[in-house]
C-alpha cells in the first residue's frame, strides 16, 4: 500500500511518541506500507519544525528534527509531481499532497487537515484521519 502523510503527521510524531501519528510512523518503519514523498512535503516538515515557537516549546523537535527528516528522506519513495493540481482552494499548499499521491499512485493520504479531509477522495485516493488509517492498518488491508 502506497501512502502520503501530511506534514502534520510527521510533526506530531516528532513532538510525541504517543498517539496515532507516532503509531503510523512506527508502522511505516516496520514495513507495513510504503511512504511517498516529494520535495514540497519535506520542505513543509522542515518549515514547521523550524518555527521558533515549536523549537522553544519542544526540545525533542529542536534536537531531532534534522535526523528525523533524514530518516524519512532515506526510507521513503520519492514521487516528484510533474503536474500541478488545484483542488484545495482554501489552502493551496495542501495540493502538494494530492500531487504527490497522484504521481506515486497512492491509495491513501493521511492528514489531520480539514481542507484535505473535506475532499474525501481524489481520483480514487482516499483521504483519511490518522485514527482511520490505524484502523485500516489493523484490519490488514
Keywords summarizing the entry:
single chain; about 140 residues; alpha/beta; Rossmann fold; 6-stranded mixed sheet; 6 strands; globular
What does this protein look like?
- The mean pLDDT is 94.
- By secondary structure, this protein is of the alpha/beta class.
- It has one domain (2-138): 5'-nuclease (Rossmann fold, 3-Layer(aba) Sandwich), CATH 3.40.50.1010.
- A 6-stranded mixed β-sheet has the order 3-2-1-4-6-5, sandwiched between helices.
- It contains 8 helices and 6 strands.
- It has helices at residues 7-15, 20-29, 39-49, 52-57, 59-75, 95-103, 114-117, 130-138, and strands at 2-5, 34-37, 77-78, 108-110, 121-122, 125-128.
- It starts with a strand and ends with a helix.
User: What is the approximate shape?
Assistant: globular
Q: Work out the number of β strands.
A: 6
The CATH class name reads Alpha Beta
Strand neighbour order, sheet with most strands: 3-2-1-4-6-5
CATH architecture, by name, is 3-Layer(aba) Sandwich
User: CATH superfamily assignment?
Assistant: 5'-nuclease
Sheet having the most strands: 6 strands, mixed
Per DSSP, what share of the residues sits in E-state strands of 2 or more residues?
A: 5-15%
* Average pLDDT reading: 94
Uncertain segments are none
Radius of gyration: 14 Å
Query: If you consult CATH, what is the topology?
Result: Rossmann fold
Q: Structural class of the secondary structure composition?
A: alpha/beta
Tally of structural domains: 1
Compute the number of helices.
Answer: 8
Q: Quote the distance from N terminus to C terminus.
A: 8 Å
Q: Helicity, in percent?
A: 40-55%
> Which series of helices and strands comes N to C?
EHHEHHHEHEHEEH
Amino acid at each position: 500500500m502506497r501512502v502520503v502523510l501530511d506534514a502534520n503527521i510527521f510533526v506530531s510524531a516528532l513532538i510525541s511518541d504517543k498517539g496515532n501519528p507516532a503509531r503510523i510512523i512506527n508502522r511505516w518503519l516496520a514495513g507495513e506500507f510504503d511512504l511517498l514523498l516529494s520535495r514540497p512535503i519535506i520542505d513543509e516538515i522542515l518549515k514547521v519544525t523550524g518555527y521558533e515557537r515549536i523549537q522553544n516549546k519542544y526540545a525533542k523537535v529542536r534536537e531531532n528534527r534534522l535526523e528525523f527528516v533524514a530518516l524519512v528522506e532515506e526510507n521513503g519513495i520519492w514521487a516528484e509531481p510533474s503536474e500541478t493540481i488545484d483542488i484545495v482552494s482554501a489552502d493551496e499548499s495542501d495540493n502538494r499532497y494530492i500531487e504527490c499521491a497522484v504521481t506515486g499512485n497512492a491509495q491513501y493520504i493521511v492528514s489531520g487537515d480539514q481542507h484535505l479531509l473535506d475532499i474525501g477522495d481524489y481520483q480514487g485516493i482516499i483521504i483519511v484521519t490518522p485514527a482511520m488509517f490505524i484502523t485500516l492498518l489493523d484490519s490488514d488491508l
